[in-house]
Amino acid sequence: MKVNECYRMKGRKQKIPIKIGTCLQRDRAEPEGYAGGQTYIWITENNFTNADKPSYGLLEQILSPSNLNKAYKRVKSNDGSGGIDKMEVESLGDYLVANKGKLIQSVMDGTYRPNPVRRVEIPKDEKKMRMLGIPTVVDRVVQQAIMQVLSPIYEKQFSRNSYGFRPKRSAHQALKQCKDYITQGYKYAVDMDLDKFFDTVNQSKLIEIISRTVKDGRVISLIHKYLKAGVVVRNKFEDTDIGVPQGGPLSPLLSNIMLNELDKELENRGHRFARYADDMVILCKSKRSAERTLTSIIPYIEEKLFLKVNKEKTLVGYISRIKFLGYSFYENEKGGRLRLHPKTIIKMKARIKELTSRSKVGEMQDERKRSGNILLAG
Known about the structure:
disordered N terminus, alpha+beta, 12 strands
């Protein structure tokens, strides 16, 4: 079995090798984890989670055969590339059949060690890239199993103004909500931009928020391990002391748990708003009211939630000026309406031009010819 090496930096010069195998899932149950990796630290700054005394048996629900089987089917249907251990989804079923007992026991007794995620970059816009962290397929199954049990619990707490990554909710509903508020006279907006939200989440604050609802300390411990698992970038290990890596099944739920605190604060203040993941717009009846709203909510976001508002990209203005989920808004005799934002149109035209360029068309024609030749040869 071929083993790759990546490195974790200790100080400025010393490199500590970390072995990454091509399916070394058996190493998960070892409490030492990776050579030179971080030691697990017990939860929250206030230590009010006791992992030795589970209260509600939530972990048993997560590890139930029906829940794990459902999680496996979802991970398999989503497909996607493998993590740092090189195991692909096609091999997942055979691995779980052979190792499910050991996997479940390691999670139950607290020796389960999630692998670091594999860092990949995908285009975000013309100039920026979005960082994703791809967990191993086995870690994705466990994350999915956690999400399936916790999601119904938190759905009862989440705001009706939150639309991202939730069952039976969509971006179209968020846009409709904005249209309805505009029709009611809320024609000025705070277009809120949270600076690198997923990369800057305060993990201690997130764990503290989760601990208010989840009383099984073993589940808290498991979530904390995923947050602290680290990331591998170009074969080098990096700690993850802050942030929630995007790319796993659990990260959308964790982001909603964190931002639900902001939702509740806005609701308590009587604001009209719509949020989709970390994209948010707050609607007000005047520009002055919108400016006051922004000024008063920034201290809560930055001092209570320890998040950062990008003040350069956060806008206050009439509804036609803002961009929310690719759209801007206007009003006519029928009330609030929406239309594609000019930047969205520019991006669409550029994409169409790319797809219909002569080189792309030539490649597609060549591919069709090759396919036809294969069929004729058969």
